[in-house]
Amino acid sequence: MNDYQAILREVEPHTEAHPAAQDASREDTTVFDLLMAGRRQMWPLVISLVLGLGAGVLFYATSPKEYFAAATVLVEDRVRNLSQEISSNQPLVRNDTALLNEIQVLKSQQMAERVVRATRLYENEGFLSPRPSLAARVVSGLKDRLRALLPVSFGAASGPAAPADGDTQTRLIRQTAAMLQDRIRISRLGRSFSVSIGLLDQDPAVSAMVANAYAEAYLADQSTANRAASKRTAKWMQQRLDEIRQRADKAARAAAEFKLRNGASDVQGLRELQHRVDSLNDLYQAISKRYEQTIVEGTFPVTNGRILTYAMVPDRAAAPKLAQVLGIFGLIGLLGGLMVAVMRERSEVYFRTGEDVTHHTGLAFLGYLPVFRRNRLRMPSVAEVDRTAREANPTFISVRKHAAGTDPAVKSGAGSRSDGRAALRVPDTAREAPEFMMALSDPNSHYMETLRNVHTTFELKTVGAAGGVIAITSALPGEGTTTLAANYANMLSKFGARTLLVDANVHRPSLSNTLGCTDLPGIVQVIEGTAPLREALRRLPTTGLDFLPCPILHGQEYPNDIFFRAGSAKIFTAMRQYYDYVILDLPALSTAVDTKAILKSIDSLVLVEEWGGVPRELVKRLLAREPEIARKTLGIVLNKAKLAKLSRYGETLRSGMHFFNPGRKRWIMR
Predict the structure, then answer these.
(1) pTM, two decimal places
(2) What is the pLDDT of residue 297?
(3) Cα–Cα distance, 598 to 578 (Å, whole number)
């Protein structure tokens, strides 16, 4: 299986597919296809999910516990609008903008520095250097290694410049305040004007302390801001009072001068000047009164908010949460498993179902041959073969009679048969293999049903012809052609047909080697004319099957042109005279040209392809390169199929009155 790429390179890359395959149209992907794909890739998904959950458990176990504490503060307007208070008696309208402004104040660096100074967080090593998790340590180690590989200009990180004053404590406070700004959590509670101030820290006492310190610092900041605003307002009012006093005095002098100059002749002008003087005096009195109130307010602290809830020291860790961690890592695992499943589905290039065969090659699908274990097989007795054959075929001719020569068809010995064919006397082979007799063990097995389907398809194709020559081959070596050829030939022989099994694989005569027929003569000697056919034949006593071996020549190889010689066609013609069916075990198409050489002498060809073991594109190109072989190919059999897994590909097996039960892992009767 390691020579796929080399074989594909040998095959023309631009050859057209088999005509029947060109007409096949690919259906759109349906929900059923997706479900089947998910079922096929269930194990990658399950394994990825388990690995993700395992990583989540490891992360949870190795991550330090963190505790969350929060205080609640009611936020009011920070500074009232003095102009509104003076000019109107209507209350101030609160809006969301004012609340957002106060939240920004809470998030400011000035507020963080105040809390750091109040709690001396810059001296707390647990806050400055929290214990990292295992994942953080791994990531940090990888970053360090990466920086070590990078040039200095890229690996060196440029940190913030030190303060100009060079005060170490001030620099440390600012750095701690920056850390606190990143970790503090400030959020609005619903639509109210209340704010939650919380901190997540590995020390529960620090979390509560910082949250309460933030709330108190906010109120203190409001008080300080109000006092500062009162001072600024008082100063402004003092300036305004002085200005109004000057203007009022000036207006009074102007009115007095006007009265001296005009007397009582111009009453209207004098009245206007006096009215201006009164207005300035009234304004002075109003501002003077508000000025006195402002001075009083500036002498004691005034806050516009209050702490609704103080933070308590938490007794339970808030992070990490096991359910949340498992959910995140499980999702990551599923996504990874999905990626693996998609890649596995996209890399699926093998034959799995009969639909794959018909779609990619345009050839008929002849059935599945299940995978088996040789060490679990046993050789059936002749009585079992007779009983199985009678159950499977009422017209069965007894193997005992056929082997003993008592059958009417062979009574004449070397003379003529009832159909005019000459009978051959062949010696029995002393060695047989149980894997070549699987078709004899159970007439209702799926293996037998597939062989029957192969033979029925051949009979329908060659209707009216008397027997024929059937070749069994594959695209690559080791796909099971020998086993199929032997079982097919044994089935035909036990049904009473005169059958000859030929080991035509002169390059790897595994069939002859397994049956112990390694002595001369064999098919090569028969073709060369150095031995007659009857001397080279062997017989399997269990079924009466005749076998023409291909013995192994030690220290030398058979000539590559053996099937191109003139004697080859004559031998196959002679075989047709003696036998109803001749089954040829040929080498793989990709390793030899013997199939093309014998093509004119055979009637049909059966391709055996390993289930999930041979690329579809390889078979497709081989058939496209050899259209004559494609035309004579009866169909494709998928060998070594794992029947229990076929349901994952949407394939429902039905064979006569039997179907496969994956749960019980055997064929049962319905």
Answers:
(1) 0.63
(2) 67
(3) 19
